[in-house]
Amino acid sequence: MRNTLDNQRENLRVIPDQNPQNVSKRKDNVSGYKGVSFHKGTGKWQARIRVKGDSRCLGFFPSAQSAALVYDAAAIEHHGEFAATNLSLGLIKKPVASVIPIEMAAAWVLG
Length: 111
Description:
Layout: E1 36-39, E2 44-51, E3 54-61, H1 64-79, H2 102-110
Helix pairs in contact: 1-2
């Protein structure tokens, strides 16, 4: 987990416009995962990500953890080393291949 209070010079980095992506999940989050919310209309979990100010839907999934894994794949794809993923934030303890194969996650993210 990140220590957001450790602002020593060696822990700081220069970033152009990546800082908005490097945040934790919202306090009003009910799914327990960053980038995941429950969509009442479909009765499924929706994964969403913001890229350069635009919100993008990544799809609808039967479980919140499946949506979280797809979010993580998209975050890494779009934000690279600056991505704040559910795994890096400690919200997913370890990737579970049986939840959703990584190939499927990549297919959803890459279209």
